[in-house]
Amino acid sequence: MDVSLVPADTTEDVRGRGVGVPRQIAVLPVGSYEQHGPHLPLATDTLVACAVVREIAAAYPVHPLPPVTIGCSHEHADWPGTVSVSAVTLYAVVRDIADSLRRSGVDALVVVNGHGGNYVLGNVVQEASARRERMALFPAVEDWETARERAGVTTSLLTDMHAGEIETSILLHAHPELVRPGHEAADFVADDRRHLLSLGMSAYTDSGVIGRPSRGSAEKGKELLASLADSFAAYFSLLTEVEPPRPGGERG
Question: What is the pLDDT of the chain when averaged over all its residues?
């Protein structure tokens, strides 16, 4: 096990970090265990989510949690090694974690999602927010777009769908030992994926790659993570407000 994926906090660390902050926030990395072509590991999305959480925890007084390592990867089922749980299960796991945190005095949760197929996480956050619970999903598409521009990533978010420039760059920075040879020649583009949910990934790529991993670099990975940490500031401010904004800008 890579111990960097599991926080080394003691209960006293958590208690001390909560002193002097208006509200305590936990950050939960959620990834997947699915194919990422021949050059990236099955755990790529979890590794990316954990790398983002490490950057956030280094910059803000938040409580990092161990990752949820298996998500909703049904579109990758044609490749060996891929493992999924149902959307209902993932929903329940995140809800249970949020409830447990509140019982221990941490009433805000940011779900850091590393896998685009974990659609249900958006529903978890929507419903929690409707109940006036403090929860957010990070990063948003806009956060990724800002990070892409800052890091000099040349592939669009549409083209950079899976095991491409962004994911390869982050792993080249955070876990270079896990990037296998061959990513320089693994580019494959399939921008029209309108039937992805019906047909799965195998209808669009033989290798499992959709994107341009050849353009990845450790320098880009470092800048991507730094940009995401900066973008997190708005989420931290929102969740630590004494009274969160209501729809229409009112405060209760």
Answer: 94
